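Let us work through a complete example step by step.
Step 1: write down the sequence.
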Amino acid sequence: MGRRVMKLDVLYEDNHILVVVKPPNVLSQEDSTGDADMLTLCKEYVKEKYSKPGNVYIGLVHRLDRPVGGVMVFARTSKAASRLSEEIRSRSLKKGYLAVLRGCPEKRNARLEDYLVKDSKKNQVSVVKEGEEGAKKALLSYGVEGEADGLCLVRIELETGRPHQIRVQFASRGCPLYGDQRYGARVNTAGEQIALWSYHISFMHPTLKERMDFFAYPPKEYPWSMFDIESVKVNNHGTL
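Step 2: predict the structure and record it as tokens.
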């Protein structure tokens, strides 16, 4: 997949921010593979569209795991990057996700709290007891939106942004995400696309000081096609 032939799906842009849709299996930022990444794509888009000479500034303020698709916001100025980063730290920037699970949680609406540790060498995250060395608190809220074919559609609001958080928290409760080979290998088949999507982002514009909401829905392919995805909405800027 060449960088130059990928068309960037832009939801919104101004002098301060760029809101785009990341396709599944595209990196958020460049790594050693040299594969296409969103940060480079955004820089190339701005450079070409506005005929900017030299290096183009684009600030990466949050990431999505490589297999995950959906809405991302990038900063076009260092001031915007700083203010968006502060929103993430203070949890005023809200991120809503959709996921298809194998099986369904016991409660239709709940808040999950765990402590997670990441093994960087294995790129594997585990649920551990509070107080264990390196453990970080992980919080999310979810609501069940539908059930079909032994699968369950959930809407998720992340309160913390830990690596692999959504995948690990549900897998630890016996409901791994559809297609997740890392945390659900016993029930998923190699080659299946993980069903996790960033469908909503809400934040205060860094200069306008107005709250902005952006939505993007996953492709109408299995397993998403089993559910009425576009009927899923959020209330009060991301709260369930």
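Step 3: interpret the result. The longest helix spans residues 78-90.
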